[in-house]
Amino acid sequence: MFERNRILDVPLTSVLKPQIALSLQQVLRLYTVGNLLDLWQDPRDQRRIEQLFETSEQARHTISVCAAWLGFDSFVMAKSTGNGGFGDPWLAGVITLPNVELGESGELDG
Q1: Closest CA to 65 of 42, 98, 87, 97
Q2: Domain assignment of residue 56, given as a range
Q3: pTM (whole model) above 0.90
């Protein structure tokens, strides 16, 4: 049996700006990175998610970063413009996962 990746349980309020995270919680009942990635799989839900970000590109960038945290190839992203092209949906700081250990290769175990 596979162990669930702890990134999936990280609250959106820990990684996204409060106004975006709270909108996702109140409108779509999304509370974690895992909830966000699950809902993104349906094209109709993608549109609903995109409407809660400043731009649809910002939403797609957020999803690709969350997927990259899990080790998936990120989606093809448009070239950034000036300020990053996507805006900044991220909360400043560092994500801290309890009991995370690095293996011999320097990669996360688990």
Answers
A1: 87
A2: 6-69
A3: no
11 bridge partner residues: 32
Query: Does residue 31 form part of some domain?
Result: yes
Per-residue pLDDT reduced to its tens digit, 18-56: 999 999 999 999 999 999 999 999 989 999 999 999 999
Mean pLDDT across the chain, nearest whole number? 77
In a domain, 60, yes or no: yes
Indicate whether 34 belongs to any domain: yes
58-108 pLDDT, tens per residue? 999 999 888 888 887 654 433 334 444 456 666 655 555 555 454 555 454
Q: Count how many domains the chain has.
A: 1
Q: Kindly state whether residue 36 falls inside one of the protein's structural domains.
A: yes
